């Protein structure tokens, strides 16, 4: 028999990843009764995959994120789960983290703030009355829970709550609907990085980033930087493909250092032509990801100097999804308005990462450096015609180019804190989310250390 229970709260956050976690923490810290619903048995989402976080520093090496985003790293560092922010000629910066310590720190911060976390619970339905979300129904362990909140925040990544509530959206890239590919991250041990870098130094044709913006992206840089993201081995992959040993639709090998000595995160799998908001396609994508990990381990052992004895250490518990639904907000930030005065005046978060578009149908990446951080206006978080709900993370209202920068974890965390702050202010004032005073919101965010 299914149990049914009802919970009431001020703020309900659906999804405990980079967009939802900081929202819940900030709302609770502002005195609001907050429930955080997470479908997995851990918090962190993509941050629990082994992938380093992008977006903490801008192209000049200046700090671009503060607030909860920086607090997470400070706490992780105290446990040995982070090693700082490292400038990068290609990615602007990389912040390696331990996925397991991130899970612990996430729970620690939620517990301290008074967030009620509901693990292993999936969003089932939403109830709308007079254009307002009034209930989110979740299900887990034979129990249906009806969450009646004053306001809701969608931190699901795919915008599941907004979708169920009927908010207008589009899927994939503007004009084509093609979605950026997915990746299944995994980690390896028992490798010799010096041997690998010696080989890279002796074979410059195996460096995959040759554009002008990548000046200094060479073995000297990788040896000097404890935190780095290596991209290359193009010619070795061509050789492996010619011999039938490489079928992953990718022409470059990518590894990312981690805070754990002797462990690398591998970001080389590539699952194309799937819509991860569809459960059947998501399942097929996961199947393909696991088989790609098997093939990539064989490739590393056979072809990569220094990785002859490399061993698989772990596989991400979730598929890394770059893109699915984009919702239409009160405001839509575009490439043309990224640096407009109005954007700067209304910004509640910012992105310092580059415009990074992965082709969803072939092996190709269009990367355009972002010289200066750009602001993300509050209106991008507010659905155009739905009350009681805020968008967070990668579901916000932006065009393809802006999304390609703002989709990474750093900006998503900043947007999440902005959403949680706005939600608390809305409850305090007894007003609609769309009526929150942006000036007051910005001031509160700055008081809490946020940068924009």
TrEMBL record:
Keyword Iron: yes
MF terms in GO: 4 iron, 4 sulfur cluster binding; metal ion binding; oxidoreductase activity
InterPro entries on file: FAD/NAD-bd_sf, HdrA-like
Coiled-coil features, chain-numbered ranges: none
Top-level lineage group: Bacteria
SUPFAM superfamilies: FAD/NAD(P)-binding domain (SSF51905)
One Pfam family this sequence matches: FAD_oxidored
Record's keyword annotation contains Oxidoreductase: yes
Keywords: 4Fe-4S, Iron, Iron-sulfur, Metal-binding, Oxidoreductase
The protein's name in its UniProt record: FAD-dependent oxidoreductase
Native species: Ruthenibacterium lactatiformans
Taxonomic placement: Bacteria, Bacillati, Bacillota, Clostridia, Eubacteriales
